[in-house]
Write a structure and sequence with these properties.
heterodimer, A: alpha/beta, Rossmann fold, seven-stranded mixed beta sheet, 6 helices, B: alpha/beta, TIM Barrel, eight-stranded parallel beta sheet, four-stranded antiparallel beta sheet, cytoplasm (chain B), pyrimidine biosynthesis (chain B), oxidoreductase (chain B), flavoprotein (chain B)
Chain lengths: ~280, ~325
């Protein structure tokens, strides 16, 4: 659904930006893992694509607010970063397929790299409500790019932080710390969000431990609603066939082992409908 | 008084002139989450191909000033899945559907037409002669009148007489009027224009092309003047041929330009990426513009900008003519 939201507050969170927007219709149907798309540049803008943003927090005050987290990457996100309280934003959402939640109170490790961590906090709330144990592993290139460390510490059993430059927590990447966290917490499941490279290695670690892993991918999108076909990645289906699947409509959450990370950015030769034949017999 | 927005695509009546553009509304289901598809003049599907197609590698999209470059490569599940799942869904709901088809050979287009000829729910068939993404040895059917005409003649001979065949033309040609004329002579009941012109962007950080496919189709407001020009030229040469004007329509005013240039229907594409409700908004804005200018019927505005300088708009003369004894 489309909502004209009003910006309530704006803040800097280390290297990132957060906007709290009053958006009643969106909060009612929100589940952890959903995202929203935002029109940028105002009414007469020359920027024709929407920006897909992660939802970091949903609250019921003011009729329903969402907190959106993003980093400035180009002119669209730069425009967003300039929004001030009482500005209006054109939001469409909630979009995508949310994180599936375990039926039983199991142990979950939540892995966030860079501002991908943002989507994990509403997920952690939902898991805690179900009596799950939640442990965080959060990382980034440097201390100012590790998102949400304070909040993670407040809500999780343990929080492990990693930075590539060693400025905070363990020196290294999230996957350097992940195996010991999984072992120590006797984790039953892993949830992850972050850049594709991080998701790839998190999935590899989870598969080594033979536990399920759900990843939320960050693909660039033009529409966010499933019509533009630009956000596809190769996903293995239930029938074993690989298809080019939309991150916005069928994702952004996928089972990690179903994502062909090493083939992202290509059309694998055996994908359904790949040039030169591929698995054309499959339907 | 409200404006009569009905329009005719050949003999097929549409309740209003606003359609989706091929490839910008998938097969309708995604937009149906937002509004009732019956409110569209017609839904144009993505281009359906014989075999499933995985499309092009990513990145497939790059934003450009007032535009969007895309190289999707006609990703889709193929005609079998379309006939099994997508078309029946539209047909059961009685949604006016323009089915777009894309192929690599005349035989492939003909086979697609054969498969669609007896399928219920096809309001019109749009033949995508011009998709710049087709990996057909770089050759595009719409580039020459003769190759385009060959496809149209074959498809026209196969489709039932009461389903209009629409030829979709590309602007990347030396003389769009000659291509248009060749397609009409081959039996096209209507023409739609324009498909995306080819463009390219280079990522100045990565120092390589922004799209994996290197070049892509340019869409969005950047190409509206190109569409207006093409519609104008073709309407001037072939005033009796119904035209669907497509290209960068973001507002009712943009649609009105294409109507005044000679289009009787307007396709909305890239605007849908920005605003899922774009078709409804544009239809409303177009109606308001017509009403504000004293039009009672959309049909009276079609091609009106072609009237000789100095002459008054026809629709405004009606009252005086009627009052003359």
């Amino acid at each position: 659904m489309q909502v004209t939201g009003t910006v309530l507050t704006t803040r800097r969170v280390d290297a990132y930006h957060a906007l709290t927007v009053v958006a009643p219709g969106i909060t009612e149907r929100y589940r952890p893992g959903h995202f929203v798309s935002v029109a940028v540049g105002g009414a007469r803008t020359s920027m024709v694509t929407r920006r897909a943003l992660s939802i970091h927090d949903v609250k019921s005050d003011y009729g329903g607010t969402v907190e959106l987290v993003f980093t400035v990457r180009g002119s669209g996100t730069a425009w967003l970063a300039e929004r001030r309280a009482r500005d209006t934003l054109d939001l469409v959402g909630p979009l995508g397929r949310p994180f599936p939640l375990p039926r039983d109170p199991v142990h979950c490790v939540l892995v966030g790299s860079e501002y991908g961590s943002a989507v994990l906090f509403p997920l952690a709330d939902a898991l805690l409500e179900r009596g799950c144990r939640v442990d965080f592993v959060l990382g980034g290139a440097s201390a100012d790019r590790v998102f949400g460390a304070m909040r993670a510490r407040r809500m999780a059993e343990t929080t492990t932080l990693t930075t590539e430059d060693g400025s905070l927590g363990v020196r290294g990447k999230v996957t350097d710390a992940l195996p010991s966290v999984i072992a120590d917490t006797r984790a039953d499941a892993v949830y992850a969000c972050g850049p594709m490279e991080a998701l790839r290695s998190v999935t590899a670690v989870a598969m080594e431990f033979d536990i399920p892993v759900q990843v939320a991918v960050e693909e660039s999108m033009a529409c966010g609603i499933g019509v533009c076909m630009t956000c596809v990645l190769p996903i293995i289906g239930d029938d074993g066939a690989t298809r080019m699947v939309r991150a916005c409509a069928e994702g952004p959450v996928f089972r990690g082992e179903r994502v062909r990370f090493e083939d992202v950015g290509t059309i694998p030769f055996d994908a359904l409908g790949a040039p030169g034949g591929g698995a054309r017999h499959a339907s | 008084m409200s404006v009569d927005m009905r329009t005719f695509l050949a003999h097929v009546e549409l309740a209003n002139p606003v359609t989706t553009a091929a490839g910008c509304a998938a097969s309708g289901r995604e937009l149906a989450q937002f509004f009732d598809l019956h409110r569209l003049g017609a839904l144009t599907t993505r281009s359906i191909t014989m075999a499933p197609r995985a499309g092009r590698p990513t990145p497939r999209m790059a934003e450009t000033p007032s535009g969007l470059l895309n190289a999707v490569g006609l990703q889709g599940p193929g005609i079998d899945a379309f006939l099994e799942r997508e078309l029946p869904w539209l047909a059961q709901r009685g949604i006016k559907t323009i089915v777009s088809i894309g192929g690599g050979t005349v035989a492939e287009y003909s086979e697609l037409a054969r498969r669609l000829a007896d399928a219920p729910g096809v309001t019109a068939l749009e033949v995508n002669l011009s998709c710049p993404n087709m990996e057909d040895r770089g050759r595009v059917f719409a580039r020459e009148g003769s190759t385009g005409a060959e496809v149209i003649a074959s498809v026209r001979s196969i489709m039932r007489y009461d389903v209009p065949v629409v030829a979709k033309l590309a602007p990347d040609v030396a003389d769009i009027v000659s291509v248009a004329r060749a397609c009409v002579d081959a039996g096209a009941d209507a023409l739609s224009m324009i498909n995306n012109p080819l463009g390219m962007a280079i990522d100045t950080e990565a120092l390589r092309p922004s799209l994996a496919a290197v070049t892509g189709g340019l869409s969005g407001p950047a190409i509206l003047p190109l569409a207006v020009r093409c519609v104008w030229q073709v309407h001037a040469a072939l005033p009796g041929v119904p035209l669907i004007g497509i290209g960068g329509v973001m507002s009712g005013r943009d649609a009105f330009q294409l109507i005044l240039a000679g289009a009787c229907a307007v396709g909305v594409g890239t605007a849908l990426f920005h605003d899922p409700y774009a078709c409804l908004r544009i239809e409303r804005e177009l109606e308001d513009l017509l009403q504000a200018r004293g039009f009672h019927r959309l049909a009276d505005a079609v091609g009106l900008a072609h009237r000789p300088p100095g002459s008054a708009p026809r629709h405004l003369l009606v009252d005086t003519e009627e009052s003359t004894p």
